[in-house]
Amino acid sequence: MATETESHVFAPWLERWRLTPDGESFTTTFGSHLLPVRSDGAPAMLKIASSEEERAGARLMAWYGGEGAARVLAIEHEALLLERVIGPRSLTDMARGGEDDEATRVLCAAIGRLQAARAAPPPATLRPLPVWFAALGPGAKRHGGILVRSAEVAQALLASPRDERVLHGDAHHANVLDGGPRGWLAIDPKGLIGERGYDYANILCNPDIETAAAPGRLARQAEIIAKAAGLDRERLLRWVLAYAGLSAAWTLDGGGDASPALLIARIAAGELGLEIS
């Protein structure tokens, strides 16, 4: 059941778009409010964004046009109405249950669909990767350790980008859902622009640290991604080191436990043969 605050947030859009609540509301890590609803009898999801980052992601969802992503049924100001993707399969369950290789290939195919060109120009709200990585350099100076190596690698990658595309920015096992006949469909993009290889790095940090840090897992999945996505394996590993460092810097700056991201950064550095302190 929605709280009083959430009910106030949802009410105008339920009326405006003639929606019927169809489940329990919940709040994302970033503070956005979501409510399962019915729209003309069909399952949908109403999302009320709490930040400009979330609103930018909604505009990118609209730009995808339902190709490789959940369809946008309506969008206005902070409100987004999406088709609700309710297929039974889960990439997280696959990765944890002996189908890790297949889950990785599914994610690669999904990212490839998202990165394909569209007729319409992309949203003006896309953030370039150098802007997205702004916290890593200062974080490395504050916290040291593997973050210094991550920052060096990120700086080199960002200075010489290859094959720049519109990027989802958060493509991982929980953000690509089973769309049944429509295939696997992405949700919750960040809305970035930059080298396409960046979008694949998060696969190697997910679906959880136990899976991601299992002996030999990162090396094996990096090989699968490189082959499936047509990427240079070493450069992909450099993006993993950069991404994990950025994630750790954000977490440390927020006072959280960055040990999972730091561990992945060290594993990636080890695969690259880089010395780490």
- Count of alpha and pi helical runs: 12
Shape: globular
Q: What's the domain count? A: 2
The strand count comes to: 11
CATH class descriptor name of the largest domain: Alpha Beta
Q: What would you call the structural class? A: alpha+beta
- CATH names the topology of the largest domain as Aminoglycoside 3'-phosphotransferase, Chain: A, domain 2
Approximate helicity band: 40-55%
Unreliable spans: none
Instruction: Report the mean per-residue pLDDT as an integer.
Output: 95
Task: List strands and helices in order, with pairings.
Layout lengths: L3 H13 L2 E3 L4 E2 L5 E7 L2 E7 L3 H13 L7 E5 L2 E5 L7 H6 L3 H16 L11 E2 H4 L3 H8 L2 H14 L4 E4 L8 E3 L5 E3 L5 E4 L2 H4 L7 H4 L4 H13 L3 H21 L5 H14 L5
Parallel strand pairs: 7-11
Antiparallel strand pairs: 1-3, 2-3, 3-4, 4-6, 5-6, 8-11, 9-10
